[in-house]
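Notebook entry, structure prediction.
Reason for the run: the old model in the group folder had no record of what sequence produced it. Starting over properly, with the input documented here first.
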Amino acid sequence: MSESAITYTLYIQADPARVWQALTEPAFTRRYWGLSFETDWAVGSTMDWVERGARTSDPEQVVLDCVPDRRLSYTWHTFTPQWAASAGIAEDLRAELAQERRTKVTYEIEPVGDALARLTVLHEGFEPGGTLIGMCGRAWPMLVSSLKTLLETGAPLPELERGSGQEPGGDEARGG
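New structure, fully documented this time:
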């Protein structure tokens, strides 16, 4: 983790097409992340984030790059009052997050031999020393571990109790 980016790499016992499904198909993302994306994944298309009944829409929430089974990039979501209410985020924290610049996430998927895929997550463009980088830095390891566990065992990591400071993918990564 740098002052303005988070990079996380892991190896998953799955082929790149299966990892791609886990990143893009709502049936998967709801299981390990607790949300789904509504988009056609075409470059330039908007993305709605749907989490706990709240829809986060914004014309700046867009797909930046999309090469099936290889690379996916999009802008991180908008911190709306509706999202904060559904995720249990206090209004003062939501307002603080909303003041930070928009970030972007890029996933690189590479085959490793016949049985593995290397997934690298790059979340960049954070305000140095900002609140969001700290929240996402704690959340991404649990989130991608849950994705890996789902693909390798058929079940995501169990939800941890809210307020423990260790939410899986945390509310901060789930929506933020």
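Summary: The mean pLDDT is 90.
The old model has been moved to the deprecated folder.
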